[in-house]
Automatic annotation (TrEMBL):
GO biological process: ubiquitin-dependent protein catabolic process
One Gene Ontology cellular component: cytoplasm
Family the entry assigns: Belongs to the SINA (Seven in absentia) family.
Positions with biased composition (Polar residues): 24-34
Protein's UniProt keywords contain Transit peptide: no
Pathway linked to the protein: Protein modification; protein ubiquitination
Pfam families the record matches: Sina_RING (PF21362), Sina_TRAF (PF03145), Sina_ZnF (PF21361)
Region of interest (Disordered), ranges: 15-34
Keywords: Metal-binding, Transferase, Ubl conjugation pathway, Zinc, Zinc-finger
UniProt organism field: Salvia splendens
Domain SIAH-type: 109-169
Domain called RING-type: residue spans: 56-92
Protein name: RING-type E3 ubiquitin transferase
Length: 319
């Protein structure tokens, strides 16, 4: 690699620095985590210019085959091509259906840093395997863990904690024990699934406690479970217990919190939490069974081998 003469690529817009300037000044809302490819290694070619060529001038994302060009050589990604109604966005000429094979070949010879390098990922990849890695990169932003809405917010954990508090008005608690009452006046309406989310801050980490009603097969149930705001490996350092009961009966659950990389629905559908049948929930609620009044208590603890890191916060594990 690294011997390509960029000047010989036909679809390069010739010496139109002004135009490039205009294009790159279009800010792109989703570009918060896009690559700033200054880390290119082991290449004799001027990295920035090649990278600029591979940036779609319309959406500013990197282009992957098929890369298109107009008759004047202006390039365009395949996603944008479907949106511009056969007009080159740069020169307004008819676009036609021309592949820019030379640029695709140039791309093949490149190595680029992971697009999340600014979030800490040190990896470098051949251009065409970069996307595959980025889909599973440990440094990729997390999705908003709020359930029951199609929230598209992503970011790191501090960003999402602030987002949950400010935008979803989620209750925030400090501490590793909890004692929550869930009250619902119309417990027959499981179909209108209710979601409740509380965020706990302990051990320097954040946890999402979910409580919700849904239909499990034919049976209406309630379910409570915990998710860890971080990756799966770290989630395994923690355990939690949940307990619900009344009148001399109780149900308990002990488990490992799931990472918020696993969607709320995925955790729910794998039944990885405390599941309470509605009849039992109404029994626990006491009274005339017209109202749901569940008291859920629980604890989060750090596993023993990491007791030093957890410091004084580690609760007594034996009950
Ligand atoms: Zn594009
Ligand atoms: Zn054009
Ligand atoms: Zn990465
Ligand atoms: Zn959200």
């Amino acid at each position: 690699m690294a011997t390509i003469e960029i000047q010989s690529v036909e679809c390069v817009p010739a010496s139109d620095g002004v135009e490039d300037e205009e294009i790159s000044s279009q800010t792109h809302p989703n570009n918060q985590y896009s690559s700033k490819p200054h880390l290119l290694l082991s290449s004799a070619i001027a990295p920035t210019s090649v990278h600029e060529l591979l940036e779609c001038p319309v959406c500013t994302n990197f282009m992957y085959p098929p890369i298109h060009q107009c008759h004047n050589g202006h390039t365009l990604c395949s996603t944008c091509k479907t949106r511009v109604h056969n007009r080159c966005p740069t020169c307004r000429q008819e676009l036609g259906d021309i592949r820019c094979l030379a640029l695709e070949k140039v791309a093949e010879s490149l190595e680029l840093p992971c697009r999340y390098y600014s979030l800490g990922c040190p990896e470098i990849f051949p251009y065409y395997s970069k996307l595959k890695h980025e889909a599973i990169c440990n440094f990729r932003p997390y999705s908003c863990p709020y359930a029951g809405s199609e929230c598209i917010v992503t970011g790191d954990i501090p960003h999402l904690v602030a987002h949950l508090r400010d935008d979803h008005k989620v209750d925030m608690h400090t501490g590793f024990t909890f004692n929550h009452r869930y009250v619902k006046s119309n417990p027959r309406e499981v179909e209108n699934a209710t979601w409740m989310l509380t965020v706990f801050n302990c051990f320097g980490q954040y946890f999402c406690l979910h409580f919700e009603a849904f239909q499990l097969g034919m049976a209406p149930v309630y379910m409570a479970f915990l998710r860890f705001m971080g990756d799966e490996v770290e989630a395994h350092n923690y355990s939690y217990s949940l307990e619900v009961g009344a009148n001399g009966r109780k149900l308990t659950w002990e488990g490992t919190p799931r990472s918020i990389r696993d969607s709320h629905r995925k955790v729910r559908d794998s039944h990885d939490g405390l599941i309470i049948q509605r009849n039992m929930a109404l029994f626990f609620s006491g009274g005339d069974k017209k109202e749901l009044k569940l008291r859920v208590t629980g604890r989060i603890w750090k596993e023993q081998q990491n007791i030093d890191a957890a410091g004084a916060c580690v609760p007594n594990i034996s009950i």
